[in-house]
Design goal:
The complex is a heterodimer of chains A (119) and B (178). Chain A is mainly alpha-helical and 119 residues long. Chain A has one domain (2-118): Orthogonal Bundle (Helix Hairpins). Helices cover 75% and strands 0% of the residues of chain A. Chain A is built from 5 helices and no strands. Chain A has helices at 2-6, 9-27, 31-53, 73-104, 109-118. Chain A is elongated, with a radius of gyration of 20 Å. With 178 residues, chain B is mainly alpha-helical. Chain B has a domain at 1-72. Chain B is built from 8 helices and no strands. Chain B has helices at residues 2-10, 14-34, 38-63, 76-92, 110-120, 126-134, 136-157, 165-177. In chain B, helix 1 packs antiparallel against helix 2, helix 2 (14-34) packs antiparallel against helix 3 and helix 6 (126-134) packs across helix 7 (136-157). Chain B is extended. Classes of the chains: A mainly alpha (119), B mainly alpha (178). Chains A and B meet through helix 2, helix 3 and helix 4 of A and helix 1, helix 2, helix 3, helix 4 and helix 5 of B.
């Protein structure tokens, strides 16, 4: 029973990382820090997928006549795509931060709210 | 990795935060190697730790690198995060165990790719044959997304002139090169 429960430890690591990133995004007002939090969240999702594709005793999915058991290649392909798309969205987010800084002179969320209320 | 993430949460110096997020990416990459995902690992090391860090440093150069100390920390975010985390951990008990060869994810089309891609495509690396051949349209879609993001970055930053123009070019090029 305990063994069965402990066999899910990979998901718990993912959840701890995911919630840390989520907390940074929700609780911190600085926009650059929010993006870093979003990156941490994103990497934890990558880890979730990759750990689901791991097969005990398996090897990297590169064919070799001596190897019988391989890790599942499909999550790897998905996550390769996701990493590259992730950096594209990060670049877009950072460009928005630069524009916000130019328009408002600050990247702190509560100061931005105040300015919007005054306007 | 967890420790790095928590230090990122606590630190106020954004420069240190960005550097730590690079370290975090490298740690993630080494974890991917341990999980037999070598292709993912070197993409994460190059793109996650390299290009993301450069882009963030460029942004810091334009926006300033101190985070303001908040006046108060409301308890609501922590509550939301704890409840979500507890719900997710509860959900993991229905998931297959770590490394289980009989997990549903490992039974569907993965054995077919592993068994047949060698003589169908002729490339020993299965990840490459799936990415470039079986799922080639996905990769085309990915390129479209990156192109759109590159165009959007250019539109956002393109109207600026003067001493920032040089920096902006660097930003765009990095986005397009991915």
């Amino acid at each position: 029973m305990l063994r069965e429960i402990l066999a899910h430890y990979n998901y718990w690591i993912v959840i701890v990382l995911m919630m840390t990133g989520f907390y940074i995004v929700v609780s911190r007002g600085n926009l650059v820090k929010k993006l870093v939090g979003l990156n941490i969240f994103q990497t934890s999702v990558f880890l979730l997928y990759i750990s689901m594709g791991k097969v005990a005793g398996g090897s990297a999915p590169i064919l070799d006549p001596d190897i019988k058991v391989y890790a599942n290649p499909l999550p790897h392909v998905l996550i390769l795509t996701a990493i590259v798309v992730g950096v594209a969205t990060t670049a877009l987010g950072l460009a928005l931060v630069v524009r916000i800084r130019e328009a408002y002179g600050t990247i702190e969320e509560d100061e931005l709210d105040l300015m919007d209320d005054e306007a | 990795m967890g420790a790095t993430a928590i230090v990122v949460l606590r630190l106020r110096s954004l420069f240190a935060v960005v550097m730590l997020s690079g370290i975090y990416s490298f740690l993630a990459a080494s974890m991917f190697v341990a999980l037999d995902a070598v292709d993912v690992a070197f993409t994460e090391a190059a793109v996650g730790a390299g290009i993301s860090t450069v882009l963030m440093l460029a942004t810091l150069a334009l926006t300033g690198s101190r985070e303001r100390i908040p006046v108060h920390t409301p308890p609501l975010p922590l509550l939301v995060v704890l409840v979500t985390g507890a719900a997710l951990i509860y959900a993991t008990f229905d998931m297959p165990a770590f490394g289980d060869p009989a997990a549903p994810a490992n039974l569907h089309v993965a054995p077919r790719y592993l068994g047949d891609s060698g003589h169908e495509i002729g490339i020993p690396n299965v990840v490459t044959s799936v990415l470039a051949s079986y799922r080639g349209y996905d990769t085309l879609g990915e390129v479209t997304v990156i192109f759109t993001a590159g165009v959007a970055v250019m539109l956002l930053l393109g109207g600026r002139r003067g001493q920032d123009a040089g920096r902006k070019r660097g930003d765009d090029d990095a986005g397009d090169a991915v």
